[in-house]
Design brief:
six-stranded mixed sheet; Heat Shock Protein 90; single chain; Ribosomal Protein S5, domain 2; alpha+beta
């Protein structure tokens, strides 16, 4: 439908179905997603404020957009007789197509998963709609019909969106004298008359929206006009004049999040460059944290005028969990998004923000270890991206990093790990894998446990990228526990000696078995050798001295970053009953054992692969060999 409908054309309505995710979201909303229904007014006022900010920005390059109505504002009016509540703004407005796109779909990536999770959890703890900027739909908690009339700035025509929230909506052209901006009319449910009371409306606005830097006016009887909010930018006020509640409500507004901030950072920088920042670290993960776009979420203002919420150079992507605003005194007011790229002033602001944030995180880590551990669980994997991408901040991030390890119940820092290293230990031992549980079960750790040596568990996918670039911490090299050149003889406390003696005959038999396995598996492994790291398992795979860590290589293969897998070293445990039995068989039968042990050799290799989380390269052959060996054992 064209927004520029001819005046003589009948005003016909077009009916559209809601996107599936919207329909699901509306169903959840009807079942009272929010614990406090009054939140709907905060959401609608916040949307109106954003619309005015966007118009102010576009008017910097096209002043005609403000013609006839330059004082941006939000108005609220109630009609008890009609049981309607109206929220209007004179901001950027929407075209008919934008009404369809913005109010009929949820365009932000990750929202389908978000809605799915909401549907799995009942109750008032689900106050999460705003995380995806879809708070408009909260209106259906209190209304059985919502009408939105809007004219985009600079457009000649307007359109009206209407829905009862039950699966579809209509969009209809309206008279051309509709004022610029958006008017939302809520037809309230019978039980929601409290939201028509002027005192109640005033209380909600003062509680949730006092920080909005536009006047919010309540239109009363006979046109009486009462401004309900302070209408000054919260970040421009002195910190002593701002309450914790006001900080929290601004966080909800600017971040579109519904948890409470874990860290609030508000300060003004003066000197060669001047800017104010009000930044927040959330207390829980936003649902779009790991989206491929890795978009940052800090709004840029210039002298209290909104410029953009999509400034890639304001913070690095590895701080994308940070919400808030930055207000510059030095950037030109008519700065464009293109001009922001590689702007030297912006680069200095970025550097100052990053340093301040990392400094505050270090303070939190020292003062509140438990709280910092919760922060790290939420955002540690994102911060680790900085170790790979930002060499300038690598040392700071290594100091902030926390890891789970084989000997610790909670998280440990690299500094604490180094301080607790065993006698003779020169390396920071680590092991990589899919999860802490999977890593803890790997046989390569058996010798470390026997000597009570702590090993860091690298289980975030990003670990595979930063580890090869970070060679050491405080002079201690990182060394994978799966490397073939690990020598623990002089490290830690040696385990108690095994009572079972290894005789020259045993050694000879083991050497013969090792030689036979090398011959049989020559095309599949780099080497076969007796292990000094295994205590319980029969076999394991390790990387060659000059080869890449096995888990890292596997991850890179999955992303087509490396080609064919490198051959590994198969280690056998000379004290394991299976290996001893095989060695005795070779000693007894000599060369005649080769045919009998051929299948066993390949099964040992596939067993080692499976323990590593890999699939045998030939599952059919694996199954056949397993069946043959079991049959021989049963039949005799």
């Amino acid at each position: 439908m064209s927004a520029a409908a001819d005046k003589n054309t009948p005003k016909t309505a077009e009916t559209h179905d809601f996107q599936a995710e919207v329909a699901r979201l509306l169903d959840i909303v009807v079942r009272s997603l929010y614990s406090d229904k009054e939140i709907f007014l905060r959401e609608l006022v916040s949307n109106a404020s954003d619309a005015c900010d966007k118009l102010r920005y576009e008017a910097l390059t096209d002043a005609a957009l403000l013609d006839g109505d330059g004082d941006l504002k939000i108005t609220i009016s109630a009609d008890p007789k009609a049981r309607t509540l109206t929220i209007a703004d004179n901001g950027i407005g929407m075209s008919d197509q934008e009404l369809v796109d913005n109010l009929g779909t949820i365009a932000r990536s990750g929202t389908a998963a978000f809605v799915e999770q909401l549907g799995q959890t009942e109750g008032g703890d689900n106050n999460l709609i705003g995380q995806f900027g879809v708070g408009f739909y909260s209106a259906f908690m209190v209304a059985d019909k919502v009408t939105v009339t809007s004219r985009r700035a600079g457009a000649d025509s307007a359109a009206q969106w209407q829905s009862d929230g039950k699966g579809s909506f209509t969009v209809t052209p309206v008279e051309d004298d509709t004022p610029r901006g958006t008017t939302v009319v809520l037809h309230l449910l019978k039980d929601e008359k409290e939201f028509l009371d002027a005192a109640r409306i005033s209380q909600i606005i003062k509680t949730y929206s006092d920080h909005i830097a536009l006047p919010i006016n309540l239109i009363g009887d006979e046109g009486a006009n009462e401004q309900l909010n302070a209408a000054s930018a919260l970040w421009s006020r002195q910190r002593n004049d701002i309450t914790e509640e006001q900080y929290t409500e601004f966080y909800h507004h600017v971040g579109h999040l519904f948890d409470d901030p874990w860290l609030t950072l508000h300060n003004r920088v003066e000197g060669k460059i001047e800017y104010t920042n009000l930044l927040y670290v959330p207390s829980s993960q936003p649902f779009d944290l790991f989206q491929p776009e890795r978009k940052t979420n800090v709004k840029l203002y210039v002298r209290r005028v909104f410029i953009t919420d999509d400034c890639e150079d304001l913070l690095p992507a590895w701080l994308r969990f940070v919400r808030g605003i930055v207000d510059s005194e030095d950037l030109p007011l008519n700065v464009s998004r293109e001009m922001l790229q590689h702007n030297p002033l912006l680069a200095k602001i970025r550097s100052g923000l990053v340093k301040r944030l990392l400094s505050e995180l270090k303070k939190k880590a020292k003062k509140d270890a438990e709280g910092y551990a919760a922060f790290w669980d939420n955002f540690g994997a994102v911060l680790k991206e900085g170790m790979y991408e930002s060499a300038d901040y690598r040392e700071d991030l290594l100091t902030l990093a926390r890891f789970r390890s084989t000997n610790q119940d909670g998280l440990t820092s690299l500094a604490d790990y180094v301080a607790a290293m065993a006698e003779g230990q020169e390396d920071i031992y680590y092991i990589s894998g899919e999860s802490a549980d999977a890593v803890a079960a790997l046989p390569q750790l058996e010798a470390f446990r026997a000597r009570n040596l702590d090993v860091l568990m690298m289980v975030d996918p990003v670990d595979e990228f930063w580890l090869p670039m970070v060679n050491e911490f405080e002079g201690k090299p990182f060394r994978s526990a799966t490397r073939g050149d690990i020598d623990l003889d002089a490290v830690g406390t040696a385990p108690e000696a095994d009572d079972e003696e290894i005789t020259p005959a045993n050694n000879s038999a083991l050497s013969s078995l090792t030689a036979l396995l090398k011959l049989t598996l020559a095309d599949a492994v780099k080497d076969v050798r007796e292990s000094n790291r295994l205590t319980d398992s029969a076999v394991c795979l390790v990387a060659g001295d000059d080869d890449m860590d096995m888990h890292i290589e596997r991850m890179l293969r999955q992303h087509n970053q490396v080609g064919e897998a490198a051959k590994r070293i198969l280690e056998i445990n000379p004290k394991h009953p299976l290996i001893r039995h095989l060695a005795d068989t070779v000693a007894e039968k000599g060369g005649d054992a080769s045919g009998e042990l051929d299948d066993v050799a390949w099964l040992l290799l596939d067993q080692a692969r499976i323990i590593e989380g890999e699939t045998p390269p030939d599952p059919a052959a694996f199954a056949r060999r397993m069946a043959d060996v079991i049959t021989k054992g049963l039949v005799g």
